[in-house]
Write a structure and sequence with these properties.
It is a single chain. The chain has helices spanning 12-15, 21-38, 60-79, 97-107, 140-150, 161-175, 190-196, 199-204, 222-232, and strands spanning 44-48, 88-91, 112-117, 134-137, 151-156, 185-188, 217-219. The longest helix has 20 residues, at 60-79. The N and C termini lie far apart (65 Å). It is α/β, with parallel strands linked by helices. The chain has nine helices and seven strands.
Length: 254
């Protein structure tokens, strides 16, 4: 008796092939969208930072302070009027600063998201991500879309190439007004950021506009960072719908 071949979308040989790549890409968009919608997640505070940071190490201070800031943000979110958490801590899902952020949210009794990506080294989902809100990505650009899509604020702790990639993605979107809302960007650890990036030189050489320096601010302790987030975040309305297809600012709109 002849066996029927599997449907194309049930055939791993096709899904994992070059021809199946568009389906894999769109799946990394639609699966998180469905999950966030079911969990009523509409807004995040994103934490970026080094996967290599460890308590007691060179960057140990930042691990502890990322934990504390994430705890404070989550406590604030849980204290806001309405049902559930209005702002959810979101990290890259791995170790170091990312794990610290997820740990801080858990210490406050709140939820947190981990947008992990498979890498040969360093990157494995940490154990503090809320079950059901841990995601595994293959494509960097789809992972970065989800960082930006729900972000209502970004806190960038010291990090390397990955942190720079993610940070400058958000700054570029803000600079070019491709976002449909303002996203406060905090650079945590002014001595680190001012040493590794000479932002003033970029403006002096004319490669960015002087006003682009207002797209971010420096902070050096959890309480100051929390106060800045409280001052600058535009809270999502309680009736705001969970994510639909990503929107950008309409061309020509203010």
């Amino acid at each position: 008796m002849a066996h029927s071949p599997p449907l194309a979308y049930h055939d791993p040989r096709f899904i994992d092939s070059d021809e199946g790549r568009p389906i894999r890409i769109v799946s990394e968009y639609l699966y998180p969208m469905r999950t966030f919608s079911e969990a009523s997640v509409t807004a995040t505070v994103v934490f970026f930072g080094s996967a290599r940071a460890r308590s007691g190490g060179v960057l140990g201070r930042y691990v502890d302070e990322a934990t504390e800031l994430a705890r404070l943000v989550t406590e604030w979110s849980r204290s806001l009027p309405g049902v559930g958490e209005r702002l959810i801590v979101c990290s890259g899902g791995g170790p170091g600063i990312m794990e610290a952020a997820n740990r801080g949210a858990a210490l406050a009794g709140g939820s947190s998201i981990g947008l992990n990506i498979g890498l040969p080294q360093e990157q494995r989902p940490n154990s503090f991500i809320t079950p059901g809100l841990s995601f595994e990505f293959h494509y960097f650009f789809m992972r970065k879309l989800w960082f930006a899509h729900l972000a209502h604020a970004l806190v960038a702790f010291p990090g390397g190439f990955g942190t720079f990639d993610e940070l400058f993605e958000i700054l570029t979107l803000a600079q070019t007004r491709k976002l449909d809302r303002d996203i406060p960007v905090l650079l945590y650890g002014s001595s680190y950021w001012k040493e590794v990036v000479n932002f003033e030189a970029l403006a002096r050489h004319g490669t960015i506009a002087p006003e682009d320096l207002t797209l971010f601010s420096f902070v050096d302790d959890p309480q100051t960072a929390l106060a800045e987030l409280k001052r600058r975040i535009v809270l999502p309305h309680e009736s705001e719908r969970a994510p639909c297809f990503a929107k950008s600012r309409v061309p020509g709109a203010g």
